[in-house]
């Protein structure tokens, strides 16, 4: 890539009160690791380059995405950017807990999952994989409220920030207890939280997002498309290959029930005369970014065509209050897919 990214194609917001500016649509790097089916690295680079050309300046990845493969693909692409372009791009990665149940159980001790020595060693590995001296954002990949009253892992990250290894500290909410980060935000222990907020999962609107706005905590929204369920591409009988993460996520009758609810969302878009402008994926992404506290919505993008479609959603008009109210009815109290029904 030799040209600078197109200017003003995507709006930007600060990632929290004191954060750096991020595009309202971010690049989710999970699929680059190969766990969403076969993924060629050259196609990943093409998607990343198209995203940057389109104004995306925020990329989210993790070591678990292909055992470091996603991080390395991103680092290789960034190394080939002109310096003036590279300095505008922000990359977030994560430190997972050491071996044990996912998410951590109430009985897990932070000493066993996020010891200081373990965190430091893992952060050094993140720095090597991303070929940088300082991580823009380091997120603990999951958490348990059992550690809220003795949040030593976050204090370790504070020391690493003082040492210049990390710019911002974050936590990715555990799926079954996203509100566990509310206390941490109020205590000023995190700069950023990464949460699930979509047409089906709307619980963060009750407290988490208002507290983020109150405390100036940056908010990254993930799973805006419900791992593909909200794209409308998959019928009730669709089955994913065994090497695709979604074969488990939509196990049993979950795909059938998801497809039926997606039809109801499509009907609402028709009723409000929005279907002509909003595809189902665009409507889902737009909803995930509709709360004032949200800084960016990260979406998986495996090829340039997906980049074009996802970025275009940012240019669509905001939902009217009436349409937004109607879409709120699609909240689905289904428990947590990973272990619930």
UniProtKB/TrEMBL annotation:
GO molecular-function term, one example from the UniProt record: oxidoreductase activity
Domain NADP-dependent oxidoreductase: 25-329
Coiled coil (UniProt feature): none
This protein's UniProt keywords: Oxidoreductase
Enzyme class: oxidoreductase
A cellular component annotation (GO) from this entry: cytosol
A Pfam family the protein falls into: Aldo_ket_red
CDD domains: AKR_AKR11C1 (cd19086)
UniProt EC number: 1.1.1.-
Protein name, per record: General stress protein 69
Organism this protein belongs to: Allorhodopirellula heiligendammensis
Gene: yhdN_2
